[in-house]
Amino acid sequence: MHGAGLRVSDLKPQDRPAVEAWVAGLSEQTRYFRLHGAVSSDASALVAPLFVPNPQRLVVLAWEDQPNGVVVGGAQCVLTPGPAEFAMVVTDAWQRRGVGTRLLDVLMARARLHGVRAFRGAVLASNHGMRTFCARRGFAVEPSPRDHATVTVQKEFPSAA
Ligand SMILES: CC(C)(COP(=O)(O)OP(=O)(O)OC[C@H]1O[C@@H](n2cnc3c(N)ncnc32)[C@H](O)[C@@H]1OP(=O)(O)O)[C@@H](O)C(=O)NCCC(=O)NCCS
After folding, report:
1. Is residue 161 a part of any domain in this protein?
2. Which CATH number does the domain housing residue 133 bear?
3. How many domains does the chain have?
4. Rounded to an integer, what distance in angstroms lies between the CA atom of residue 26 and that of residue 123?
5. In angstroms, how far is CA 5 from the centroid of its own chain?
6. pLDDT tens across 53-103, in order?
7. CA distance 15 to 55
8. pLDDT digit string, tens, across residues 115-138
9. pLDDT averaged over the chain?
10. Out of 4, 35, 130, 131, which residue is the most buried by the measure of CB atoms under 10 Å away?
11. Pocket test for ligand 1, best of 39, 133, 155 (most atoms within 8 A of CB)
């Protein structure tokens, strides 16, 4: 199933309990890849920054598209001059089912409306899943200049048709 059975929405204040439950259920490895080693088990503290109003931050969530469906993934970017910094994470049991692809498509479309022309992200060098995901999506994957532990992924958006 690739991207089917999903609903993608912008983060809303009332999503906080669902987001906390989602983050609490992520495996240590998935948290490690997303947070680059800062593996806290305090989901409430981890998600708190997302709920501080910040017009520079865009966050989209993927939900199971069914009554009482839970959050299964999220992606965010920060609107900085130049490429917007992005990151994403998908629930372990939902990985390799098209969730990340859907999230990235929606986040790019949202970002484009804010004038963003490129995404950039820092990915742990050991995170072969995200490196392959990005390469498949046309990102350049390059060593980070001052940090052997991470690689930089970057993609210019195609021109609008
Ligand atoms: C990396 C991640 C975001 C990808 O999301 P996803 O929903 O699993 O990705 P998709 O199902 O949309 O995958 C699309 C393609 O990317 C590639 N890909 C994704 N995960 C992969 C993996 N673990 N190994 C190899 N290729 C992978 C595949 O080519 C895949 O297509 P296929 O399944 O038809 O072969 C997700 O696995 C994840 O959350 N990982 C842990 C957290 C993380 O690493 N976040 C990134 C830090 S910014």
Report:
1. no
2. 3.40.630.30
3. 1
4. 18
5. 19
6. 999 999 999 999 998 899 999 999 999 989 999 999 999 999 999 999 999
7. 17
8. 999 999 999 999 999 999 999 999
9. 93
10. 130
11. 133
Q: Which pLDDT belongs to residue 58?
A: 98
- Ligand 1 centroid–CA 90 distance in Å is 8
Cβ of 100 below 6 Å from ligand 1: yes
Residue 1 inside a domain? The answer is no
Tell me if 88 CB under 6 Å of ligand 1: yes
Give the pLDDT confidence score for residue 161 in this predicted structure.
57
Cβ atoms within 10 Å of 80's Cβ, excluding its own: 11
Q: How far is CA 92 from CA 22, 31, 100, in A?
A: 10, 10, 11
Please tell me the residue having the least CA distance from ligand 1 atom 29: 133
Q: How far apart are CA 58 and CA 75, in angstroms?
A: 8
Task: Identify the residue whose C-alpha is closest to ligand 1 atom 15.
Answer: 133
Cβ-in-10-Å burial (0-12, 13-18, 19+) of 150 comes to middle
